[in-house]
User: Which sequence fits this backbone?
């Protein structure tokens, strides 16, 4: 079975190609940037290029995108060209060539301003039922592309799935305050409680989505590590998260003390992956408790696949005041 992976020089694209090739699938990786897992170099905004790449393909995985780190370095038109026109090109060519499953990689960033509670409110319990309130051109174009996928499933019969992934990038956080307060591994470990996922689990979700799309029809799923929290924890998480974590993951403090780490004092949101687990049969392996067990045994917070893919950055140039510039 031939499969197409967009953005194959990026984190998730490479991870998908690596995994699919490792299980014997014929894969075409495409990207605007050359790379060891990219077979064809070109832009998804180029309809003719997309047409040549997609011929004979049964499944399309579409992680290629301009990301949040590009908001301060690219124009809004760039985002429209890549995230919307590029997705439209892929969808139209997928219908023309008879693609069986189309899996679109979206982001929890589409929730935008809905993720920021007032200071007196409990943490936000984030499920697929929450309305998207994008706060920048990245979120707007990702949400609109999701709707394009739904449109093509409903009107053209293309089996599509949308996976809203939480953070899995290995690069440093763009928040200068967070970088000053925590080491990078400490910050990422904290995030596994509520807003991070390992790339190995993201890949497994994509493979299940491709398999289940023809049977389930259009779906949107949150893809994030399984949180140990319940809704009754939300008020406590805002004011004293360490107490809640101690109750839900006994023994974490010893691991943190061993590494000299600090737990976040407050947590403002919790991504909930229950629907993906129930409907896709997804079983993510890398949650906070699993990380504590691995660290206690001298392991790494990253899966083997995450370590193989490594860090790529988002720009060709290096910035002196952070991993990338942030829009003011």
Assistant:
């Amino acid at each position: 079975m031939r499969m197409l992976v967009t953005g194959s020089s990026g984190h998730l694209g490479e991870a998908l190609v690596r995994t699919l090739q490792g299980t014997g699938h014929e894969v075409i990786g495409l990207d605007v940037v050359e790379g060891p897992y990219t077979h064809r170099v070109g832009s998804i905004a180029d309809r003719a290029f997309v047409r040549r790449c997609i011929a004979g393909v049964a499944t399309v995985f579409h992680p290629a995108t301009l990301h949040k780190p590009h908001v301060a370095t690219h124009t809004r038109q760039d985002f429209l060209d890549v995230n919307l026109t590029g997705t439209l090109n892929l969808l139209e060519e997928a219908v023309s060539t008879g693609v069986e499953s189309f899996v679109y990689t979206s982001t929890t960033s589409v929730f935008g301003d809905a993720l920021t509670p007032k200071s007196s409110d409990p943490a936000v319990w984030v499920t697929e039922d929450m309305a998207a309130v994008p706060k920048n051109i990245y979120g707007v174009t990702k949400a609109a592309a999701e709707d394009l996928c739904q449109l093509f499933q409903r009107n053209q019969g293309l089996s599509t799935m949308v996976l809203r992934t939480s953070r899995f990038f290995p690069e440093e956080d763009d928040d200068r305050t967070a970088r000053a307060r925590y080491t990078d591994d400490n910050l990422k470990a904290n995030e596994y409680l509520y807003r991070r996922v390992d790339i190995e689990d993201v890949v497994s979700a994509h493979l299940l989505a491709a398999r289940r799309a023809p049977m389930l029809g259009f779906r949107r799923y949150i893809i994030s590590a399984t949180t140990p929290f319940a809704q009754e924890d939300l008020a406590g998480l805002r004011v004293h998260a360490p107490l809640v974590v101690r109750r839900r993951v006994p023994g974490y403090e010893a691991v943190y003390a061993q590494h000299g780490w600090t737990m976040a004092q407050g947590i403002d949101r919790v991504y909930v992956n229950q629907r993906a687990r129930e409907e896709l049969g997804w079983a993510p392996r890398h949650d906070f408790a699993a990380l504590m067990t691995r660290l206690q045994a001298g392991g790494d917070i990253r899966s083997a696949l995450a370590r193989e893919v490594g860090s790529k950055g988002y720009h060709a140039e290096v910035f002196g005041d952070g991993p990338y510039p942030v829009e003011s």
